[in-house]
Write a structure and sequence with these properties.
The structure is a homodimer of 386-residue chains. Chain A has 16 helices and 16 strands. With 386 residues, the first copy, chain A, is α/β, with parallel strands linked by helices. Chain A has an 8-stranded parallel β-sheet with strand order 4-14-13-12-11-10-6-5. A 3-stranded antiparallel β-sheet of chain A has the order 1-2-3. A 3-stranded antiparallel β-sheet of chain A has the order 7-8-9. The N and C termini of chain A lie far apart (49 Å). The mean pLDDT of chain A is 94. At the A-B interface, α13 and α14 of A face α13 and α14 of B.
Chain lengths: 386, 386
């Protein structure tokens, strides 16, 4: 299911290939997010041209609407949204826990009131498996429980225990149902929790490891509040206790700079709403040349200073917007509320992320990833100070 | 500037070519609307693939934001929005008159308070010319004055007189400034008004005709309220008094059925917000096969009955949405508020219109346009009654 093709000598970064039922995925890889079965403003197939290999879809949203049963009738999510590459689904738990005070967790599962219509539902380790089998994703995740950023260690310990117990049940359910599902090639990956506690991360990793999942997600690092340094620490507490030759996905991370750092720690895949969400607000990533300090900065296209700027958004980028339009035009689209603005911005930011991943893979191959690690910085604040 | 290449024997329909500074335009032609320098959700260049030849941009909106001066600095609207085909601009008057009670008309021009910031502006025949020259469109219209649907004949007569007086001033201004403008190949067309009154339409057409514009717009037929039959009548009152060998644009018309009828009356070009506006509400045009009565109907993709409809939106259509997605998926995108839904719907409706125009041109060429005229009906209501 996963082959490491090259290891970086100076960091824990590695090149690899995840074999999915919908093609090989070269890692390190970034997964654009198609929350509700669509990438904002973009048809999934368009992403293929820019090097997207796998997308992440949210089990919770699709379960609630249009319903996993309907998607199964359509032949699965690949067919429903006409995406021929890999699909990774989360367990649905993250969105359920985000609903806040209407959420109740027991050993059985999570009971909550849906945000769409206020009706009460329960998500269990078993039903999460069933929903993801109906979606027919290539990589499915087990349901887990995790804390908000700063939580009492005793509470986290109980959550780690429950995550392990749920993982066993999810695995049993998956084994029972997989063969007769839409995508019998679906893999099920485990999840490591434990918040910022070294011993709990170790315990969680070791317990999940005994279940012999083909891959892992490292969870609970992007649920708000924690600093990037604590996030890197949580990754460092987890990875050494997992088999080196299995793929590791870092859930919900991150900014371009964070992804580079996490690759160096041994993470293989990433998903994050940042590039698409920032795009909707007119925040766009621009590459800096080495002579300008390297790395990148985030520009706010809404600013007055771009009003008569007839240069491309990013002259190193070959996306549709950068090769066809100026900053002035893009700013005009945002100022006028023209939906084309968000589309061009989303395309650009995703292209930026996908190009970054290609550069990371190329540099590991060429043996100079440590140079990217050293030089790749978000210079937005530095540029503002000038 | 305009060549008629074939005349239909049974109607006044004709095939023609308008020569613009940005390429030949084969008529009858439909102009997608790029109000603010963008077609909703779509990059203008994408339209090229589906046969769009010329678009209409609104002088009022671009004057107000980002400003015609900025667009001139960008090298004109073609360059600003990266559209290499023809651009047709209106005079700005229609939008100004739509502002309602804050509008004051004198012989000098129209004074109004802008909807964007409440500031006071005056649009004159001369400034409308100047703005359109800054935009660098291929066909510019003269400023006119026109009534709401049902107006006193005396008032309309005064408006016709003012429209003629303004046309002379606009022509003089255009002659003065054209050579040193961004697009020295810009044509200026006249406008015929006169509401629903036969003698006033005749008078307006004859007065405008003496000015020897290279083409005409027929105005005041789509400003709300009037029935299609009155609109056809207004066209019939106007066209016989204009030279046969000059192109005639019917402003703001119309539904697919209305366009077919107006082609039969001798109209050569059309613009209308209907296909793009309907698309944003999930109203989509679907072709009916001859055995199903021919013509077309408008489907509301939001309806429950399409929830599990895994067939293409329109299986006669080769647009991106129809060849890649199902009605169920499109409905899901609308239900979820995914912007991709509006994009696919807009692409489909524009493709439908552009295909219709191609069919009209082909049928005139083949000598059977009268069959389209006879059979091409909007069957939406008939289908609902079944």
């Amino acid at each position: 299911m996963f082959t490491i093709t090259k290891k970086d000598e100076k960091t824990k970064a590695r090149l690899g290939v995840i074999r999915t039922a919908h093609g090989d995925v070269n890692t390190p890889v970034f997964l654009p997010i198609g929350t509700k079965g669509a990438i904002k403003s973009i048809a999934a197939e368009e992403l293929k041209f820019w090097g997207a290999q796998m997308i992440l879809a949210n089990t919770y949203h699709l379960w609630q609407r249009p319903g996993d049963g309907l998607i199964a009738k359509a032949g699965g999510l690949h067919q429903f949204m006409n995406w021929k590459g890999g699909i990774f689904t989360d367990s649905g738990g993250f969105q359920v826990f985000s609903l806040g005070k209407n959420v109740k967790v027991t050993d059985q599962g999570v009971t909550f009131r849906a945000d769409l219509d206020g009706s009460t539902h329960t998500l269990t380790p078993e039903s999460s498996v069933q929903i993801q089998l109906n979606l027919g994703s290539d990589i499915a995740l087990v349901l887990d429980e995790f804390p908000a950023a700063e939580t009492d260690k005793k509470i986290v310990a109980a959550m780690v225990a429950r995550t392990t117990m749920w993982a066993k049940r999810a695995m049993a359910e998956h084994k029972k149902l997989l063969a007769h599902s839409i995508n019998p090639g679906q893999m099920q990956w485990g999840i490591v929790q434990g918040a910022i506690f070294e011993d709990l991360r170790k315990q969680s990793a070791e317990e999940i490891r005994t279940l012999e999942f083909p891959g892992y997600s490292i969870g609970g690092v992007a649920n708000g509040g924690e600093s990037p340094e604590l996030m890197y620490q949580a990754v460092n507490y987890s990875i050494p206790h997992l088999e080196e030759d299995k793929p590791k996905h870092l859930l919900g991370v991150g900014t371009p700079e964070q992804i580079v750092r996490a690759v160096a720690l041994g993470c293989d895949s990433f998903d994050c709403v940042v590039p698409t969400r920032e795009a909707r607000h007119g925040k766009l990533y621009v590459n800096l040349k080495p002579q300008d300090g390297g790395g990148y900065y985030t520009m706010n296209i809404n600013l007055e200073k771009y009003k008569e700027d007839f240069t491309p958004l990013d002259n190193t980028c070959s996306c549709y917007g950068c090769t066809n339009f100026t900053r002035a035009y893009l700013r005009h689209l945002f100022a006028s509320g023209e939906p084309l603005g968000i589309r061009l911005a989303t395309m650009h930011n995703l292209r930026f992320y996908l190009n970054l991943m290609q550069n990371i893979r190329d540099s590991i191959e060429a043996g100079n990833f440590d140079q990217i690690l050293k030089n790749y910085k978000d210079q937005t604040i530095e540029l503002k100070a000038q």
